[in-house]
UniProtKB/TrEMBL annotation:
Protein name per Swiss-Prot or TrEMBL: ADP-ribosylation factor GTPase-activating protein AGD11
Organism: Panicum virgatum
Span of domain Arf-GAP: 48-162
Top-rank taxon: Eukaryota
UniProt-listed CDD domains: ArfGap, C2_ArfGAP
Single Gene Ontology MF annotation: phospholipid binding
Regions crossing the membrane: none
C2 domain location: 206-321
Length: 381
């Protein structure tokens, strides 16, 4: 492999965890920037220029997983450019495995782009994670949702194609895994790689555990939703006199959370999170927590948001030429039978983007409001 020299022929460096590899590259780049005193390190123009250069590399012009042309998403921990269909499955793996960023919709930092460049792009990713992929088992562009999710999970989460299935796979074990393996040694004489041996030819009854884990990803996605967590107001006290709040959002099996704001009841996040929209469309769930160090985090309220009206409005005005801010729909807080709206909620459009501003009364808590802005992005974008 052309990249083996770069990492000292140490495959375990990549297999420890993809996120650890990503952090290591980023930390290394930041240290290099500090040492060289590069004044343009955080220039968005430089980041965009390098990103476009990476996209123009031959291997990066096609999705690393299914081969669809012109991929517009990146799985940062691996350094792969992927299509929107595969990005939905990557998101369902969780950010601890695959962090998905949009080439066009997200703002890239110079550090993130250089981390992506250091990973080598689709050519190196597939050389590494498909090294022992059985012949004719690479998914096609028109594969089913089940085939897509099964392949991506095997490739990245279980890393089944990294090593020869005829031998034990040299994946590093954490302490708990090592203890479990030692306890089971007498009853299980097969190597670690035996569990994955000939997995493509296993009967359905032999792969129930794998199928159960991959069921999470076996859904169709109708678009993306960008959630801007703006701020909280008059939140509940969970420490002595204040709280350390953060917000967790859930959509189906996906979840993301904001950073923790220390020692405040009126936090300002202005943090944008993005999730895939599954079909059927579930409510967007928001939960506020107080971060604790030595005990479980305390609940500070929750709220559910029906995102179907926003999705319908987005589809209706997908090709709109409206440039001025225009109100499309309004929900009155005084007429809200569920008592969730603290203020009137408005769906508006400007420059082709349909957004909804919502101020929520947090439920199951003594007090607190949460202000958010949501935007639907159709698959066509």
């Amino acid at each position: 492999m052309e990249r083996d020299g770069m990492e000292g022929n140490n495959l375990l460096h990549f297999l420890d965890t993809p996120s650890a590899h990503y952090r290591l590259n980023c930390d290394g780049f930041e240290a290099e920037n500090d040492a060289d005193d590069r004044s343009d390190a955080s220039d968005p123009a430089n980041a965009r220029e390098l990103l476009e250069c990476l996209l123009n590399q031959p291997a990066n012009k096609f999705c690393a997983d299914c081969g669809i042309p012109d991929p517009k998403w990146a799985a940062l921990p691996f350094g792969a450019f992927i299509c929107i269909k595969c990005s939905g499955t990557h998101r369902s793996l969780g950010v601890h495995i695959s962090k998905v960023i949009s080439v066009n919709l997200d703002e890239w930092t110079d550090e993130e782009v250089h981390c992506l460049a250091e990973s080598g792009g689709n050519s190196v990713v597939n050389t590494r994670y498909e090294a022992f992929l059985p012949e004719n088992k690479k998914i096609k562009q028109d594969c089913s949702t089940e085939e897509r999710n099964d392949f991506i999970r095997k490739k990245y989460q279980f890393q089944q194609f990294v090593c020869d299935p005829q031998f034990s796979c040299p994946l590093p074990l954490n302490k708990k895994q090592a203890q479990d393996k030692h306890q089971q040694h007498n009853s299980n004489k097969h190597g670690f790689g035996h569990a994955f041996r000939n997995s493509w030819r296993k009967k359905d009854s032999d792969s129930k555990g794998l199928k159960k884990m991959s069921d999470v990803g076996m859904v169709e996605f109708v678009g993306l939703i960008k959630v801007n967590i703006v701020k909280g107001t008059d939140l509940a006290v969970r420490d002595v006199m204040s709280s350390d709040p953060y917000v967790m959002i859930n959509l189906g099996h996906q979840s993301m959370k904001t950073k923790v704001i220390k020692n405040t009841l009126n936090p300002i996040w202005n943090e944008r999170l993005m999730l895939s929209i599954p079909d059927p469309i579930p409510p967007l769930k928001l939960q506020v927590f107080d971060k604790d160090t030595f005990s479980s985090d305390d609940r500070m309220g929750e709220a559910d948001v029906d995102i179907r009206p926003l999705i319908a409005a987005t589809k209706e005005h997908e090709n709109s030429t409206i440039t001025e801010l225009t109100e499309l729909y309004r929900w009155s807080a005084s007429e809200d039978s569920n008592g969730v709206l603290a203020k009137d909620s408005v769906i508006s459009i400007a420059n082709g983007k349909v957004k909804q501003d919502i101020t929520l009364k947090l439920q199951n808590v003594e007090r607190g409001e949460l202000e958010i802005e949501i935007e639907c992005v159709p698959l066509s974008q």
